[in-house]
Design the sequence.
Protein backbone atom coordinates (compact mmCIF):
# COMPACT_ATOMS: atom_id res chain seq x y z
CA UNK A 1 0.00 0.00 0.00
CA UNK A 2 1.47 3.40 -0.91
CA UNK A 3 2.39 5.80 1.87
CA UNK A 4 -0.46 8.17 2.72
CA UNK A 5 -0.04 11.92 2.76
CA UNK A 6 -0.23 13.69 6.10
CA UNK A 7 -3.72 14.98 5.25
CA UNK A 8 -4.94 11.52 4.18
CA UNK A 9 -3.47 9.97 7.33
CA UNK A 10 -5.29 12.50 9.51
CA UNK A 11 -8.53 11.83 7.64
CA UNK A 12 -8.14 8.07 8.11
CA UNK A 13 -7.34 8.54 11.82
CA UNK A 14 -10.49 10.61 12.27
CA UNK A 15 -12.56 8.05 10.36
CA UNK A 16 -11.08 5.25 12.46
CA UNK A 17 -11.87 7.15 15.66
CA UNK A 18 -15.43 7.87 14.51
CA UNK A 19 -15.98 4.22 13.61
CA UNK A 20 -14.59 3.08 16.96
CA UNK A 21 -16.86 5.49 18.81
CA UNK A 22 -19.78 3.97 16.89
CA UNK A 23 -18.91 0.50 18.15
CA UNK A 24 -16.74 -1.00 15.45
CA UNK A 25 -13.87 -3.22 16.53
CA UNK A 26 -10.36 -2.53 15.25
CA UNK A 27 -10.43 -5.47 12.82
CA UNK A 28 -13.61 -4.22 11.15
CA UNK A 29 -12.27 -0.66 11.04
CA UNK A 30 -9.13 -1.95 9.35
CA UNK A 31 -11.28 -3.72 6.75
CA UNK A 32 -13.43 -0.64 6.16
CA UNK A 33 -10.47 1.70 5.75
CA UNK A 34 -8.19 -0.77 3.97
CA UNK A 35 -5.59 -0.39 6.71
CA UNK A 36 -3.71 -2.90 8.86
CA UNK A 37 -5.18 -3.91 12.22
CA UNK A 38 -1.83 -3.04 13.83
CA UNK A 39 -2.09 0.55 12.58
CA UNK A 40 -5.67 0.90 13.82
CA UNK A 41 -4.69 -0.51 17.23
CA UNK A 42 -1.77 1.97 17.45
CA UNK A 43 -4.10 4.86 16.60
CA UNK A 44 -6.64 3.62 19.15
CA UNK A 45 -3.97 3.75 21.88
CA UNK A 46 -2.35 6.97 20.68
CA UNK A 47 -5.61 8.92 20.26
CA UNK A 48 -7.42 7.26 23.19
CA UNK A 49 -10.38 6.02 21.15
CA UNK A 50 -11.93 4.49 24.27
CA UNK A 51 -12.12 7.91 25.97
CA UNK A 52 -13.78 9.37 22.87
CA UNK A 53 -16.28 6.51 22.86
CA UNK A 54 -17.24 7.19 26.48
CA UNK A 55 -17.51 10.95 25.88
CA UNK A 56 -19.91 10.48 22.97
CA UNK A 57 -22.05 7.81 24.53
CA UNK A 58 -24.76 10.20 25.68
CA UNK A 59 -27.72 10.24 23.30
CA UNK A 60 -30.36 12.83 22.53
CA UNK A 61 -32.92 10.81 24.47
CA UNK A 62 -30.60 10.72 27.51
CA UNK A 63 -30.23 14.51 27.37
CA UNK A 64 -33.98 14.87 27.12
CA UNK A 65 -34.46 12.50 30.08
CA UNK A 66 -31.97 14.48 32.17
CA UNK A 67 -33.78 17.74 31.46
CA UNK A 68 -37.19 16.21 32.17
CA UNK A 69 -35.91 14.50 35.33
CA UNK A 70 -34.49 17.81 36.56
CA UNK A 71 -37.79 19.54 35.84
CA UNK A 72 -39.72 16.88 37.79
CA UNK A 73 -37.33 17.13 40.74
CA UNK A 74 -37.64 20.91 40.69
CA UNK A 75 -41.45 20.65 40.72
CA UNK A 76 -41.24 18.22 43.67
CA UNK A 77 -39.01 20.63 45.60
CA UNK A 78 -35.94 18.42 45.23
CA UNK A 79 -32.53 19.38 43.92
CA UNK A 80 -32.49 18.95 40.10
CA UNK A 81 -29.80 17.00 38.24
CA UNK A 82 -28.92 20.15 36.27
CA UNK A 83 -29.55 23.75 37.21
CA UNK A 84 -32.79 25.39 36.05
CA UNK A 85 -30.67 27.96 34.23
CA UNK A 86 -28.85 25.23 32.30
CA UNK A 87 -32.14 23.48 31.47
CA UNK A 88 -33.58 26.76 30.17
CA UNK A 89 -30.50 27.37 28.04
CA UNK A 90 -30.71 23.87 26.53
CA UNK A 91 -34.43 24.27 25.83
CA UNK A 92 -33.83 27.66 24.19
CA UNK A 93 -31.04 26.22 22.03
CA UNK A 94 -33.31 23.38 20.85
CA UNK A 95 -36.12 25.85 20.05
CA UNK A 96 -33.84 27.96 17.87
CA UNK A 97 -32.88 25.09 15.59
CA UNK A 98 -34.43 25.12 12.12
CA UNK A 99 -36.59 22.16 11.08
CA UNK A 100 -33.64 20.64 9.25
CA UNK A 101 -31.36 21.10 12.22
CA UNK A 102 -33.96 19.58 14.54
CA UNK A 103 -34.14 16.41 12.44
CA UNK A 104 -30.35 15.96 12.36
CA UNK A 105 -30.02 14.55 15.90
CA UNK A 106 -32.82 12.09 15.20
CA UNK A 107 -31.23 11.06 11.92
CA UNK A 108 -27.86 10.64 13.64
CA UNK A 109 -29.48 8.51 16.34
CA UNK A 110 -31.33 6.34 13.78
CA UNK A 111 -28.12 6.03 11.76
CA UNK A 112 -26.29 4.90 14.91
CA UNK A 113 -28.90 2.21 15.58
CA UNK A 114 -28.70 0.96 11.99
CA UNK A 115 -24.90 0.92 11.87
CA UNK A 116 -24.77 -0.77 15.28
CA UNK A 117 -27.02 -3.53 13.97
CA UNK A 118 -24.97 -3.93 10.80
CA UNK A 119 -21.76 -3.93 12.85
CA UNK A 120 -23.08 -6.79 14.95
CA UNK A 121 -23.95 -8.70 11.78
CA UNK A 122 -20.38 -8.20 10.53
CA UNK A 123 -18.81 -9.18 13.84
CA UNK A 124 -21.08 -12.20 14.39
CA UNK A 125 -20.93 -13.56 10.85
CA UNK A 126 -20.55 -17.33 10.79
CA UNK A 127 -18.60 -17.45 7.54
CA UNK A 128 -16.17 -15.30 5.59
CA UNK A 129 -18.73 -14.90 2.78
CA UNK A 130 -21.39 -13.72 5.22
CA UNK A 131 -18.92 -11.31 6.84
CA UNK A 132 -17.90 -9.90 3.45
CA UNK A 133 -21.55 -9.49 2.39
CA UNK A 134 -22.50 -7.74 5.64
CA UNK A 135 -19.39 -5.57 5.46
CA UNK A 136 -20.30 -4.58 1.90
CA UNK A 137 -23.82 -3.65 3.03
CA UNK A 138 -22.42 -1.66 5.92
CA UNK A 139 -20.06 0.26 3.63
CA UNK A 140 -22.89 1.06 1.22
CA UNK A 141 -25.23 2.23 4.00
CA UNK A 142 -22.47 4.43 5.47
CA UNK A 143 -21.76 6.04 2.10
CA UNK A 144 -25.42 6.80 1.40
CA UNK A 145 -26.08 7.99 4.95
CA UNK A 146 -23.07 10.30 4.79
CA UNK A 147 -24.46 11.80 1.58
CA UNK A 148 -27.84 12.38 3.23
CA UNK A 149 -26.24 13.86 6.36
CA UNK A 150 -24.13 16.19 4.23
CA UNK A 151 -27.18 17.37 2.27
CA UNK A 152 -29.27 17.97 5.40
CA UNK A 153 -26.39 19.69 7.18
CA UNK A 154 -25.74 21.97 4.20
CA UNK A 155 -29.44 22.84 3.96
CA UNK A 156 -29.62 23.63 7.67
CA UNK A 157 -26.50 25.80 7.52
CA UNK A 158 -27.91 27.75 4.59
CA UNK A 159 -31.25 28.46 6.34
Sequence:
Amino acid sequence: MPKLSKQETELRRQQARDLYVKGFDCSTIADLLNMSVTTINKWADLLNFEQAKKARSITLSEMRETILDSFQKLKAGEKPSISPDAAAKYAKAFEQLSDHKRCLPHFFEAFEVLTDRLTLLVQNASSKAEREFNLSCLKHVREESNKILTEITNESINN
About this structure: The radius of gyration is 19 Å. Residues 97-159 form one domain.
